[in-house]
């Protein structure tokens, strides 16, 4: 199982694992902290692995692609004053790409 969201989907991800299953964590877009049910973790013999999804060399290659104009998927742009709209969209999982908050005057 790949987990890239964090607290919003953590429990569902853990419950979807088969005994001896592995959860690879590669992000935390909904927050940095989760609760872990320790008895479930050790009785089911789950493995939790952190991953950056690549090496430093691969990250450098990615940065080069971005500098060359690699398109970045932007779902929507919202003024900072309307952050609630952007947050609601993020919480519902309705975005496909990045949600951008724009400061006034930019």
Automatic annotation (TrEMBL):
The protein, known as: Unannotated protein
Which segments constitute the Alcohol dehydrogenase-like C-terminal domain? 2-67
Extract the InterPro entries matched here. Answer: ADH-like_C (IPR013149), NAD(P)-bd_dom_sf (IPR036291), Zinc_ADH-like (IPR052711)
Q: Please report the organism this UniProt entry assigns to the protein.
A: freshwater metagenome
